[in-house]
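At this stage, I put together a protein sequence along with its fold in C-alpha cell form, as given directly below:
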Amino acid sequence: MLLFAVLAVLQVPVGSWCNHRVFTDLSQSVLILDEDTVSTAPGSGGTVLCSTEDLFWKECSAGSPQRIVSLRNGEIFSREYFSGPYRGGTGILVSVPEEILLLDLNGTVQRSLYTGEYPGSLCSNGKYIWYVSSRDAVLKRVTVVTEETEIVALPFIPATVEYRNGHLLLGRTGGGYSVTDLNGNQILNIPTGFNGHFSSSNTITFLRSSLQEGCEILLWETVSIDVKTGRETVTVSENSAPVTCVDLPVDNPEAHFDVPYMHQKWDTPDWFNGNWSCGPTSCMMAVQYYNRLTPDSIWCSSPTGHWSQWGNYLPTEYTFLGHIYDILGKSPGGVWVPGSHGFICRNIGSAIWAEMTSWMTQHGLTSYQLGTTWSACTSELDNSWVVVASTTS
C-alpha cells in the first residue's frame, strides 16, 4: 500500500505563552500565536522558546545570518550558524561549533562554555547544562560553575533534551520519548509521537498520527500527558483528513513507512551536483527513518526555495559516533567531496553496496546486502524494516 498525503496546514503545537497557544505546521516555516501569524521565515517554527517574559524563535532566511527574534524586541542575536534558542535557567542557551553560549533575555552573551563539539539540543536548570552529543551519541551534563562534563548513562541513544521542574524530556532516536530524573532514570515512557515539549511544569504535549480503517482516514492527535500520573488527554486535529491510497498486491495493510524524503539534487547544497548521489541519498533516508542524525539545515534554492534538514551531510565532512567522514568521493564534473557521498561512492562516483551497508552500520543500524529476490524484499518489509533498493522501473 502506497500512501500519498499532504497536510501542510496541520497545526503542530510548539508551546504556550501568557495563555496563548503557539503553533507551527509540518514545514516548520511558520509561527502562529493563537490565530495570528507572527513569522513566515524558514525555520521559525523549528526552535521556539516560550518563557514567562517573552516568546523567542529562530529564523533562517536565505542569504542572511541565522537569528533569534523576540516577540517584544525583534532581533536580539545573530550568527552564521547556531542551534537554539533553548531554555537556560533565567536566560537563553545557544550552541555554536565547540561552544555553548549563555545569553540574557536581550541576547547579550554572558558566558561561553567550551565543548569541543556542536551540540544539537540542550537545556539547563541553572546549575547544570544537559546536551545531546551527536558526535558521541550520548547525553552529557556540564556543571556550570566548574565546567566539568560527565556522561549521563541511558539505555537508548538520545536525540533531544528539555528540562522542566526537575524532569528531563528525552527524545529517542528510535522514536518516542522518555521522561527521566536528572540522572537519567526513567519515570515515564512515551512509545510514539513527535514534536514533544513541556507545555507546563508537569504536562508534556506531543503530536501523534494513526491510520484508521486500513488506509481511509489519517488521524492527527494532539496528546497531553501528565508526568505524575501518566494520564493522557487526546484531541483529534481538525486537519485529520481522508487520504489517497494506491492499492498494490500486498497482504499487509500496515506495510507503510513514514520515511523522510530527500531529493539527491534539490535537497543538497546549491554548489553540489547530486546527480550521482542516489545511493547516499537513499541511505540517508533510511538512517533518518530512525532519527540518527540531528538536523544540519541548509537553504536550497531549486526548484523553489526551501529548507533541507539533512542534505548538507551528503557532500560535507562530519563526525558521528567516532567516525570522521572525510574520505573523498568523485561527483559530476570531477569534483571530489567528503561526507556520505565520499564514503559511499569513493573513486568510481557511484554507490558501492559494501560501503552503503558499512555507512548505515556506522550510524547504528543493522544493515546487510539482501539480494534481489521478491520474497527476501517482502519479508524485510513485513518485519517493518526499511529496504534500500536499486531498481530499473
In short: The chain has two domains: 7-245, 274-382. The first strand starts at residue 2 and ends at 4.
